[in-house]
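Structure in, sequence out. Go:
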């Protein structure tokens, strides 16, 4: 699917933002076998994953909210929308989604748990802390098979270089 220059710019900003937040494995526009989902930005830490969906139009945002992986499964323990400032309002977000605004070359966090803990989902990781504060309110139970496929796809591409 073709993207606009603005979408590409925000995707690069989102990837850089995840890296600054400790996600050591970050990819953009990943397609992999067995998954219909194609996240704009996907990042992994040792404890969790995060996905950023870039939206440059309201119609794209509302269409995205209807995707089946937005309701159940899908990629990302933590999920973000990144858009130009004011395009999406916090009260329009699906449950447990976070919101980032792009303004020039900077990203402003609009909705996200406080702190930089980024815990994994309780029950999926035996070593997970149960004192995650408000982070639990923003967690999703990702499709583990889809995440494994994504990680394999990233590793395969890196090993081919």
């Amino acid at each position: 699917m073709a993207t606009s220059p603005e979408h590409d710019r925000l995707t690069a900003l989102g990837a850089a933002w995840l890296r600054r937040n400790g996600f050591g494995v970050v990819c953009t526009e990943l397609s992999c076998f067995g998954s219909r989902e194609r996240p704009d930005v996907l990042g992994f830490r040792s404890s969790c994953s995060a996905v950023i969906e870039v939206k440059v139009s309201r119609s794209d945002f509302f269409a995205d909210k209807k995707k089946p992986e937005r309701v159940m499964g899908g990629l990302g323990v933590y999920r973000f929308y990144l858009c130009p400032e004011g395009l999406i309002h916090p009260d329009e977000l699906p449950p447990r989604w976070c919101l980032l605004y792009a303004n020039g070359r900077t990203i402003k966090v609009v909705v996200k748990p406080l702190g930089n803990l980024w815990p994994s989902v309780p029950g999926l990781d035996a070593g997970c802390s149960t004192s995650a504060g408000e982070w639990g309110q923003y967690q999703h139970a990702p499709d583990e098979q889809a995440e494994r496929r994504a990680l394999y796809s990233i590793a395969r591409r890196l090993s081919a270089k």
